[in-house]
Request: fold
Amino acid sequence: MSKEEEIEMLKEKLDYYTLVATDEEFDAEEVIKIVKRLEELEPTEAPEKSVDEFLDDFWKYCEEREREKKILEEFRKQNSCIYDEKSVVL
Reply:
């Protein structure tokens, strides 16, 4: 069996276990074996960033959105005579 054929067979088995198999048919140990073998045959590249770096970026993004939200709220308060709640000129 060629490497490509083995990869295809393993992917089909993995699809079966994850998409078709009932709880009784599901075999966690077999799934782990399949995933490990696939990793041997098709190594995946590690992400450029660690999980911690991704989380840091996410929290920075959230902080920036909050900062922008506060700026917009302050602007709306200062200009309430010009704009109503839907930012329509009165």
In short: The helical segments are 3-20, 28-41, 51-78. The radius of gyration is 26 Å.
